[in-house]
Amino acid sequence: MSQSKMELRITALERELEALKSKFEKIERDKEPWWKKRVGIFANDPAHEEAMRLGREWRKAQREDYDQE
User: How many degrees, rounded to 5, is the angle at CA 26 between CA 21 and CA 31?
Assistant: First the structure.
């Protein structure tokens, strides 16, 4: 690889590294934990409610099967 191509690649990598570093610095400055931004995203969602209902039914059936053993 020629010297000029190598220098171009290094310059591109340095730019990309700076972009990544600035993204991480922004994340670190954010005082609110990531999970708090997700709280409530399924509120009043019928599909989520159905999934929770099915999960409860499945867990209940598993307990009943275990109790019969």
Answer: 140
DSSP 12-59: HHHHHHHHHHHHHHHHHH--S-GGGGTTTTTTT-HHHHHHHHHHHHHH
pLDDT in tens, 11-33: 999 999 999 999 888 877 777 88
Report the distance separating Cα 48 and Cα 52, nearest Å. Answer: 6
- Identify whether the C-beta of residue 12 lies closer than 8 Å to the C-beta of residue 6: no
Furthest C-alpha separation in the chain = 75
What is residue 9's three-state secondary structure?
Answer: helix
pTM for the whole structure:
0.45
Cα(29)–Cα(55) distance, integer angstroms: 37
